[in-house]
Write a structure and sequence with these properties.
Helix content: 25-40%
């Protein structure tokens, strides 16, 4: 009897100790990283536990730090390395989901001045991470627009949480030296700040341990920060990224180049779900998990995004698009028709056509202007950049629409129709800011303060900047990095 009681007490004691250790681990996990360099006066930094002072200077007046003087017993200085410096490492970092306007505002306030002025990066459509990261890193297309997707060949919904947690079948991940582990991605919405700190700390450690000449990193946690953390707090967390990058840059002694960018933006407005199921049912459609009858519609529901993909029998695309254009929260619907894309909203439709090589486009309203490009077309015509049949060059369309609410609209719609994912949707519904579609369960757990995926500028524009020099802008996602970045790592073709 005593032995049994003693064993029970020992067991309880071990469980209490293990529970306490787990609680302590959860408490201490994801703590903020201590800054190694502390600003003691404008442009002057003290290194922790060192009498040295690092004085950052902009010697040519372009707004960017190009020289660092180290004051102390071993006084020295270094300059920003040139891209051709054979001894310099190249750190390439993607901050997932950081909007261009947010990063630009920080730069204008004097932050991230080791880098040149940021330029906009136009994400593909939809402005979803898998699609954009594939373009940015010149990787093979992902299976679907999200990790949960519809497999056309198998006629079934596929992927999901297991795909996210294992990072399986994501070709761009294979090119990265660092990415947040899959098991942490769900935690990013439950404990976003802790997950962010752990992600940033893990990245810093892995980079310091690596000897790779070119190091590619993706900080996925910055996206979830913008989804569920108040905007002001998200900006403060970005300054912790600044502190870590400054630490790596200063510690390199002039032997580290850094390219920093994001894959897309964020709406920066709280959003609510569209009434999709009720809308479909009211118009005679049946939402299913596989396609069978003529009224069947499959809509994958995974994240809470500013767009959604729909799959239907091919001969029903036009009818379904017409009905979905009337959905509350829908901005417009797109679907491919031959070598063109039809864009439809509640007022009517238009058509986007392109030359076979993508060198020229035209926009043909058919009773409506769903992309709201009327003024752009008029300006191109006035500038004699539009020919008699309505064609203008790709470069002219980009220049004319870079600052539009739908940046680079025609090129991005061609990209959607011809590339991006292995299971392209029959149609995509672009939602207005303030609306999302996705998992009902996720929607009950999370309050979305911001989202992305939509065609509008806030969700479509990421940023790019570099220590090497000013970047031309705006840039399309595929233009941010040269393909040779993979060759230098020995992992791909030039």
């Amino acid at each position: 009897m005593w032995r049994r009681r003693k064993l029970l007490l020992w067991t309880l004691g071990v469980l209490v100790l293990l529970g306490g250790a787990l609680a302590w681990r959860i408490h201490t996990w994801g703590r903020p990283l201590a800054s190694v360099y502390v600003e003691v006066s404008p442009g002057t930094y003290a290194r922790v536990h060192s009498p040295e002072r690092y004085v950052a200077a902009d010697t040519n007046g372009d707004g960017t730090i190009d020289e660092v003087s180290i004051q102390g017993a071993n006084a020295r200085r270094f300059s920003t390395p040139h891209a051709e410096d054979p001894e310099a490492r190249w750190l390439i970092v993607c901050l997932d989901g950081v909007p261009y306007e947010e990063f630009k505002a920080l730069w204008d306030e004097g932050h991230f001045r080791e880098f040149h002025r940021p330029v906009p990066v136009i994400a593909p459509f939809p402005s979803a991470s898998g699609v954009a990261l594939s373009a940015l890193f010149h990787a093979s297309p992902v299976a679907g627009y999200e990790d949960g997707y519809f497999d056309r060949a198998r006629n079934e919904l596929s992927g999901g949480a297991l795909k996210t947690s294992t990072l399986a079948d994501m070709p761009y991940v294979q090119l990265l030296d660092y990415d947040m582990p899959g098991w942490a991605r769900g935690l990013a919405y439950v404990m976003p700040v802790k997950t962010f700190h752990a992600d940033l700390g893990r990245f810093r450690t892995r980079f310091r341990q690596s000897q790779a000449k070119v190091y590619l990193a993706h900080l996925a946690s910055t996206d979830s920060i913008y989804h569920v953390v108040p905007r002001g707090q998200a900006r403060e967390l970005l300054l912790e990224v600044e502190a870590v990058l400054r630490e790596l840059y200063f510690d390199s002694g002039g032997k580290l180049r850094i390219t920093l960018f994001s894959d897309h933006g964020n709406s920066l407005v709280q959003n609510r779900p569209v009434p999709l199921d009720a809308h479909l049912a009211a118009r005679g459609w049946r939402r299913t998990k596989k396609l069978g009858g003529p009224s069947d519609v499959v809509v994958p529901a995974y994240g809470l995004m500013g767009f959604f993909a729909a799959y239907c029998p091919p001969d029903q695309r036009a009818a379904l698009a017409h009905d979905l254009a009337l959905l509350e929260g829908a901005d417009f619907v797109v679907y491919a028709e031959g070598d063109s894309v039809v864009v439809e909203n509640a007022q009517g439709r238009a058509r986007v056509e392109w030359k076979a090589d993508g060198s020229a486009f035209r926009y043909l309203p058919e009773g409506a202007d769903p992309l709201r490009l009327g003024e752009v077309v008029a300006r191109l015509r006035e500038e004699k950049k539009l020919d008699a049949e309505g064609w203008a060059s790709d470069a002219d369309w980009l220049a004319a629409t870079a600052g539009h609410e739908h940046p680079d609209a025609l090129h991005r719609l061609r990209g959607w129709a011809t590339n991006h994912v292995r299971n392209r949707a029959d149609l995509v519904v672009n939602l207005k800011p303030g609306f999302h579609q996705g998992s009902a369960t996720f929607d009950r757990v999370v309050t979305m303060l911001s989202t992305h995926g939509s065609f509008d500028a806030s969700q479509s524009l990421g940023f790019a900047t570099s220590t090497d020099g000013p970047l031309p802008g705006p840039l399309r996602a595929e233009e941010v990095l040269p393909r040779k970045a993979k060759t230098e790592r020995g992992t791909g073709d030039s």
